[in-house]
Amino acid sequence: MPHLAEGIARFQREVFPAQAGLYARLATSHRPGTLFIGCSDARVVPELITQTDPGELFVVRTAGNLVPAHAPGTDGVGAAVEYAVTVLGVRDIVVCGHSACGAMTALAEGHDLSGAPAVAAWLRHADASLARTAGAGRSGDVAALVRENVAAQLANLATHPSVARALAGGEVRLHGWVFDIADGTVEELPAAATATAPSSEAATATCAEAATGARAAA
Predict the structure, then answer these.
(1) For the chain, first and last CA: distance in Å?
(2) Which residues make Cβ contacts (< 8 Å) with residue 77, sequence separation at least 6?
(3) Between 43 and 190, whose confidence is greater?
(4) In the predicted model, is pLDDT for residue 174 greater than 90?
(5) Which residues are catalytic?
(6) What distance in Å separates the CA atoms of residue 82 and residue 72, rounded to the nearest whole number?
(7) Cα separation of 114 and 186, whole Å?
């Protein structure tokens, strides 16, 4: 871990002084405009992709960017979503999938997960994603499953009472993105795809364009 200690020292020496004013404000105020739900994959860094400053994104990262549908009981993801919408008042929520996702690859290719029972149980939150992909005649297609999973998780998100109320009141907007690791582009799924039916069409935006949208929402 020496490189992490070196990174902290470099941050304190080179980065923090230039942003001391920002951090002074953030020390007493936290009002991000966007909830970003992404994958835990180390290659997908929300603040880097969107080029946002500290304090602009409220970030939740889970394996496969999965959002369990609302259910009674304690749920860490649900609590974070509720806090972002109800307390922080975010105006936009992004669910961002990505290329070469290990979780989606395991599901699409039917990997044996008997040695990782917790992972297997967690990935059941993508059952609807598998069904959507099969319904579109794309079973086994990892890229198709990544896209359909974003749409399915947005549907799950809308089952949370805090999100449902905010959507009904026009207080929040939902967005589905797919980040391509190899070329750095972000595909924004069209509204029809993120709502219900699978779609083969999508509007592709560069990371710079996506970052502009995120800053405007913040």
Answers:
(1) 34
(2) 60, 62, 66, 67, 68
(3) 43
(4) yes
(5) 39, 41, 43, 98, 101
(6) 14
(7) 33
